[in-house]
């Protein structure tokens, strides 16, 4: 028995050795002493007795035994050697009673290197043992700015809480996200039962994931697992049967493939004007009536955001009275969003718009379950392949608003009231500040957040004595309030100068036309796995600025000129030298920020007085949208 096992292991070793040699790879085991950084640039930390995942054992501490094994830890010395006889004896011992003596190993960058017990590891790997006990010493490298080093330091923090060492990621921040995804606080320690549950769930997922696709995406199983439980929920995944898990993994495969992309979102800056060939249009059967559902988080009477989208829905009905029918759901919460989407699908809706970022996960799940239904979520920088997302370049309008406010500010002081610190909002703030700086080099923008707890925004505004205030973009008609757009405060009453406009009807109309004329699929690039985000602006008519009759004629003319320049592409609010509160962001006078850089801004312009608030300072009702779309501060 032991001899036949050695012969099989020997064949596996020789095959692996030859493959590695032919492909220019090291054919034998890695040697830790050969790859360690210079002495003095790392420290050693004893971890004690650790259950070592054998999949992560990749080499030896010294080169003394490295040439006895191939790179997969299978033996490559002939059967008549003393080494082979010891290996055979160990294999028989493993079969009869198991190997229980701990090995001695070093851990470096979450890989393990054996100092004592190489043959034991080889035997256990051959028999498919998952993990083995070992006395482990960790090699801790000095902190650097390298991505792998930063991920390793995040892993060490996570390990202190969880003692989980068998999962790895390729993206920064993933260990913190995993801690949150399993329902733990940032510093909460895992119990032994927590560790066992996680090991069981992750092992089941990993087995099905690795068996599901060919080829497997070039990400770690951990990357895929985190995306999976983020989408479906850790507790829900725990309850899945093997067959249910297998089916969901298969249906979610495009999500995993997309994780390979460094730039996950493809921003579509303008509507697709490509036309299908005339013949194909003539031969195309008449399209059935399109049924469209709109899902709102709040009601039309309580939310200006919902009211703006509702105007867009009504615009669709007026524009396509014969071709399109619509319905809407309002007051939808996290608790009933899944049921709401199921109801819309059951009623035959071909196209569904979910109008807030907090609905994105439910939208993806519904899209995976109903591949024939088109689902779009109103958010930006959202990375999902099964749905498309949409937003508008409101920063273009905010630049014009800033230019108006800067010119109209008698004392150079402006206030900007923002809602949530999410993607898109920071660009709006900075564009406003840059617009104000263009017409008034001395303008200062005092930033206030309506979502920060225990703050009276209007009291702060009065205290700064600002000449002009940028408030809500619009209000619902029932309120009758004038505190929107750009306004002066005169004896406590607003005196409106201009307002930005979200023309969602224009967006919905142009998107519906791509479905009707058969060009919807043209936005899908078969050579990329990126998510698609429609990010249209003034040139598409989806954002605009309306000037009050109170605005001087010369200012109206300037707004018209700037609007034309932006629409034609001759001017970008974020071109030229740009300075943040902490220094120069864009040093090139001829340079311009890319769309991706604008979307993911995490800095404030140097004439903004204020900060981007951390999540713990926000009101509870703001947390959901910020957790989904909150701006991530870059580290290092």
UniProtKB/TrEMBL annotation:
Limits of the ABC transporter substrate-binding protein PnrA-like domain: 291-450
Keyword Metal-binding: no
UniProt keyword list: Signal
UniProt cross-references to InterPro entries, sorted A to Z: ABC-Purine-Binding, PnrA-like
Any one of the GO CC terms: plasma membrane
Secretion signal span: none
Keyword Signal set for record: yes
A Pfam family this chain is assigned to: Bmp
UniProt protein name: BMP family ABC transporter substrate-binding protein
Organism of origin: Merdimonas faecis
């Amino acid at each position: 028995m032991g001899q036949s096992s050695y012969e099989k292991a020997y064949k596996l070793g020789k095959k692996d050795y030859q493959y590695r040699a032919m492909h220019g790879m090291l054919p034998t085991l890695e040697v830790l002493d050969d790859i360690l950084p210079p002495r003095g640039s790392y420290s050693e930390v004893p971890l004690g007795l650790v259950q070592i995942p054998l999949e992560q054992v990749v080499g030896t501490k010294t080169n003394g035994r490295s040439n006895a094994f191939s790179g997969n830890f299978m033996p490559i010395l002939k059967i008549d050697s003393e080494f082979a006889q010891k290996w055979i004896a160990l294999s028989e011992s493993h079969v009869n009673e198991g190997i229980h003596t701990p090995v001695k190993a070093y851990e470096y960058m979450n890989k393990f290197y054996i100092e004592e017990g190489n043959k034991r590891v080889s035997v256990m790997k051959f028999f498919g043992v998952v993990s083995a006990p070992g006395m482990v010493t960790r090699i801790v490298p000095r902190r650097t700015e390298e991505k792998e080093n930063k991920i390793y330091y995040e892993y060490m923090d996570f390990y202190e809480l969880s003692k989980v060492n068998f999962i790895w990621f390729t993206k920064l921040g993933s260990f913190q996200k995993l801690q949150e995804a399993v329902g733990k606080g940032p510093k909460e320690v895992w119990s032994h039962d927590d560790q066992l549950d996680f090991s069981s769930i992750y092992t089941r997922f990993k087995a099905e994931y690795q068996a599901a696709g060919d080829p497997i995406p070039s990400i770690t199983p951990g990357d895929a697992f985190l995306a999976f439980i983020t989408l479906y929920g850790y507790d829900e995944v725990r309850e899945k049967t093997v067959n249910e898990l297998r089916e969901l993994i298969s249906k979610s495969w495009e999500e995993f493939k997309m994780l390979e992309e460094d730039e996950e979102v493809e921003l579509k800056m303008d509507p697709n004007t490509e036309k299908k060939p005339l013949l194909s249009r003539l031969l195309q059967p008449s399209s059935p009536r399109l049924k469209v559902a709109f899902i709102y988080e709040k009601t039309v009477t309580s939310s200006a955001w919902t009211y703006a989208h509702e105007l867009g829905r009504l615009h669709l009905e007026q524009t396509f009275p014969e071709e399109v029918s619509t319905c809407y759901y309002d007051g939808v919460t996290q608790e009933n969003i899944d049921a709401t989407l199921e109801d819309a699908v059951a009623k035959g809706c071909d196209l569904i718009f979910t109008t807030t970022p907090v609905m994105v996960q439910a939208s993806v799940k519904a899209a995976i379950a109903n591949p024939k239904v088109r689902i779009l979520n109103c958010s930006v920088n959202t990375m999902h392949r099964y749905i498309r997302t949409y937003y508008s370049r409101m920063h273009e309008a905010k630049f014009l608003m800033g230019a108006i406010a800067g010119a109209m500010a008698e004392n150079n002081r402006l206030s900007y009231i923002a809602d949530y610190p999410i993607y898109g909002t920071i660009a709006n703030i900075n564009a406003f500040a840059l617009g104000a700086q263009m017409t008034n080099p001395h303008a200062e923008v005092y930033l206030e957040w309506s979502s920060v707890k225990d703050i009276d925004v209007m009291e702060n505004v009065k205290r700064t004595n600002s000449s002009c205030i940028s408030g809500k973009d619009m209000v619902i008609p029932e309120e009758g309030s004038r505190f929107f757009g750009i306004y002066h405060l005169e004896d406590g009453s607003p005196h409106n100068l201009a307002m930005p406009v979200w023309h969602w009807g224009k967006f919905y109309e142009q998107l519906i036309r791509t479905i009707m004329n058969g060009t919807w699929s043209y936005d899908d690039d078969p050579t990329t796995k990126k998510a698609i985000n429609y990010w249209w602006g003034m040139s598409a008519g989806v954002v605009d600025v309306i000037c009050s009759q109170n605005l001087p004629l010369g200012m109206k003319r300037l707004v018209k000129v700037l609007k034309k320049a932006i629409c034609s592409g001759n001017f970008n609010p974020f071109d030229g030298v740009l300075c943040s509160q902490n220094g120069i962001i864009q040093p090139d006078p001829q340079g311009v920020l890319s769309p991706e850089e604008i979307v993911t801004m995490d800095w404030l312009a140097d004439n903004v007085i204020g900060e981007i608030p951390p999540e713990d300072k926000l009101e509870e009702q703001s947390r959901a949208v910020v957790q989904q779309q909150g701006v991530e501060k870059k580290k290092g």
